Amino acid sequence: MLKTFLNAYQDFWVRAIDFSGLTSRSDWWQVQLANLIISFLTLPIFLKTFGFNAYGVICIIPQLAIDIRRIRDFGKDWKWIFINFIPIFGWILWFIWLGFGKQGIAKQKFI
């Protein structure tokens, strides 16, 4: 389990600018968990040093890439990423689609 967790996080950075392809639901969840843990550990340091979460800024492009790959795996067009501009409703819908939505196309590749 730790190996798959580390592989998913490594893949997050290796495919940081890869907006094509797909990402499985489990890989998306593992990356979100890793980013949450790292953010909690580094936030006090970065806030004191820079005044903002530098790790969060560094992760913007890779996070967009994994989200776009995941939304494609879910079966929607990449343009649905703009639903995040709708406060609360858009964020909740986005989280449900990516985190709890159907496994999608990527599951078929692993069978």
What string, H for helix and E for strand, traces the elements in order?
HHHHHH
What share of residues are in beta strands?
Answer: under 5%
- Number of self-contained structural domains: 1
What overall form do the CA principal axes indicate? globular
What does it look like?
The protein has helices at about 1-15, 25-50, 55-60, 60-75, 90-100, 105-110. With about 110 residues, it is mainly alpha-helical. It starts with a helix and ends with a helix. The chain contains six helices and no strands. The protein has one domain (about 1-110). Helix content is about 70%, strand content about 0%.
Considering the chains and any ligands shown, give keywords for the structure.
111 residues
Task: Give the helices and strands, then pairings.
Elements: H1 2-14, H2 25-49, H3 54-58, H4 60-74, H5 89-100, H6 105-110
Helix pairs in contact: 1-2
